[in-house]
Specification:
With about 190 residues, this protein is mainly α. It is built from 7 helices and no strands. The longest helix has 26 residues.
Length: about 190
């Protein structure tokens, strides 16, 4: 009979090195190649709606300021999300330029979601809309994007029609809350 080894047992060897991609964040599921992660677009659309509401309650301002505010806020929040994903968990893992580029690319829907309401605000005068019309058009475009992205995300995830409708309804409810906030702040 041999005696058991003395001292603590060595830790088991890792069969694979730590993954390097942005999807390797602990607690986050791996992202499938070719499948979109629409959470950034949903979030970005809600962010754009919030920016429109906040700006719309300040009174009259040039519509190009709203366009710049929408796009600028999208870029700042995109950068914050990239930073949080890279440094929130990755400080203990290897950080490379390919990981930075990949993470930045994956968070890009936050910026893209600000584009449709910004375009709506930019072209609203072509429809004869005044200040409040511009704000409402940009808000509706942002909320339609939010509901659309949420529904598409559910569909791409393989959700049933019922779950897709629920995802859309929840995001519509969030959008209605934003609209109610706008109405309450203006009166």
């Amino acid at each position: 009979m041999t005696a058991p080894p003395e001292g603590p047992e060595p830790p088991p060897e890792d069969p694979e090195p730590a993954p390097e991609g942005p999807a390797a964040v602990p607690g986050r599921p791996e992202r499938e190649v070719g499948r979109g992660d629409y959470s950034g677009a949903v979030y970005g659309s809600l962010l754009a709606a919030s920016v429109v509401v906040g700006a719309g309650t300040l009174g009259n301002f040039p519509r190009l300021e709203l366009v710049a505010l929408l796009l600028g806020t999208g870029v700042v929040f995109w950068a914050a999300h990239v930073f949080a994903r890279l440094f929130g968990v990755r400080m203990v893992h290897h950080l490379s330029w390919s990981v930075v580029r990949s993470t930045a690319r994956e968070e890009r829907p936050i910026i893209k979601a600000a584009v449709p309401p910004a375009v709506a605000a930019a072209i609203a005068p072509l429809f004869g809309l005044g200040h409040q019309g511009i704000v409402w058009l940009a808000l509706v475009v942002a909320l339609v994007g939010q509901v659309g992205w949420a529904t598409l995300a559910a569909a791409r995830a393989g959700a049933s029609r019922r779950m897709m409708m629920l995802a859309g309804a929840i995001n519509l409810f969030l959008g209605v809350l934003i609209v109610l906030l706008k109405v309450a702040l203006q009166h």
